[in-house]
Amino acid sequence: MPRSGQTPTDDWLTPLRAGRWFADLGEPAQRALLAEARCVTLGAGDTLFRRGDACDGLYAVLDGAVRIGAVDAAGRDLLLQVLGAPHWFGEIAVIDGGARTHDVSARGECRLLQVPQAALQALLADDPLWWRHLGRLLAEKSRALLAGLEQIAALPAPQRIALRLLALAEGHGMLAPGVVQRELALNQEQLGAMLALTRQTVSETLGDFEARGWLRRGYGRIELLNADALRALADQPPKSSGRPT
């Protein structure tokens, strides 16, 4: 179960500033956002919230990773995304006042930052500029989502995988300039679930990339060794006769 506690805000500023959205807020707004924040620790597999739950605030990953998913009508567990530090999430319910849209649980032990809903509502009431700040966060997510959907629809498996690995390393464009995460906290089954690819296809493709020296696979992680080579593959124009795998 989640465990909450207070931590000095200076301990949070450095990791959070690796994210573009938070870094762009500027120090006064950063400290205002964190004024009533608290640290939440999850154990492996712990659920933070489920689809349909009431909104309890905005979250950021300080270390570790969370999985975003849902259960379909057939009872299958669907993985949509794995988020590591310093990603923020939960803004949809904050903006529209509705229920949570998906399930969020800990991939392993992780530490999160929670800005409670009451504190956010106070910020929004005191300074309407915060609506724009939250809108920018949602817009960044929307850009990444649309790019991912386009990749799934148009590209063969190797390019899809290369692009998704690069997107994860670059925080889907949400990391501060110059920040790159070369060790990714996910396995090939999770990668396949995000890209609508079979585990066998992902395993074969990653094996080929590993043989070329582009990455290294470990238990529950993928380390990127040659991002330039992955980028060169990802940027190849699709063949006119090719079809998505």
UniProtKB/TrEMBL annotation:
SMART domains membership: cNMP, HTH_CRP
Keywords from the named record: DNA-binding, Transcription, Transcription regulation
Residue ranges occupied by any Cyclic nucleotide-binding domain in the UniProt entry: 21-124
PROSITE patterns attached to this UniProt entry: CNMP_BINDING_3, HTH_CRP_2
One Gene Ontology term of the molecular function aspect: DNA binding
GO cellular component, one term: cytosol
Limits of the HTH crp-type domain: 155-228
InterPro entries referenced in this protein's UniProt entry, alphabetically: cNMP-bd_dom, cNMP-bd_dom_sf, Env_Response_Regulators, HTH_CRP, RmlC-like_jellyroll, WH-like_DNA-bd_sf, WH_DNA-bd_sf
Coiled-coil parts of chain: none
Provenance organism: Ideonella alba
Record's keyword annotation contains DNA-binding: yes
Domain of life, per lineage: Bacteria
Keyword Transcription: yes
Protein name per UniProt: Crp/Fnr family transcriptional regulator
